[in-house]
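Worked Example 4.2. Consider the chain below.
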Amino acid sequence: MSVRESEIAALRAALVAKGSVRISHEDLWRLWCVAAPRLVGSPQQTDDLHECLRALAEENTICLPSRSSKRLWPSYVTVPASRPAVKSKPWVSYPWRAELGWAASLRTLSQELFADLVAINAWLGRHATQTVPLVPLRYRSTEIFGKEKRLDDLARTTLFDSGRLTLDLLACVRYPPPLPAAIVGNGPDVLIVENSDTYWVFHELLRDITGHPIGAIAWGSGRTFPAQVDALGVDVAGRGPVSGIAWYWGDFDPAGIAIAEAAALASSTVPVQPARGLWSAMAGRPIQDRDAVDWSGVQGGHLLGSESWALLAPIRAACGRVAQESVLIDTLAEWVNEPR
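Applying the procedure from the previous section yields the following structure tokens:
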């Protein structure tokens, strides 16, 4: 064999390093010139390349084209090692419990989600013969994964759906964040306000007035309230679910309107209604942050009603806002006597 072992090794390394499954005639020739520079321009250059290719084919580094071709020079060679590896699907053959049998038919599953399902499978197996007490979601998540928020993450994936993972299967329940609240009367209604100082003003005010329908005052904690809305149907201030009306009032600015709208949409048990009288009362107060507030795209008429929305038009026209704290306490007391 006239071709040198070092030249075979050099071409082998170059073909693999290129990373292409199919290497053309032109590329092959360029790689050969680099692998065997002593042969460039030599009459032996082509014959030695053929000899080198046969040696690489015999060791299965490359595959040559079909012998049916009449060309002496191969138009291309293929490098099997450069083909993408077929990804294994361990979840297809994993011994799932019946509750997770659907996992075997998944087309794709990341390594992380596969590990999560294996952990759930093991948990189901440990409790197969016993009644599992219902616990809050993050308690169950900590028990299964050692991570209290992992089930929150999984609940946002397609693994959670009817016929797949459910909170019932895992014997857990998602409780809404609690509302900071205080009892201020015997009435069935609850008033939720956006800001903490307004909460304390109403707390004192409502305790000193009798005969009003507001049984509890709650602080919506600003943008947090839409996530807390369902707490209204569980418990507010230890009085149990709200049996009357849940009134909401926030700052008159785009963010305040957005919070009120999101809360109204999020409520699945107790409807949240805007305290329109309190929103309307903001129309007569000094406008704050003139020319600094962008009201474009804000459509609050369906939330507050056309009458209240029209009263507040000058604030929007001035590109300003009005905070809850601008409304006089006497005005708040007037609303308490006749909530609307």
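The chain has 15 helices and nine strands. The longest helix spans residues 111-126. Compare this with Example 4.1 before moving on.
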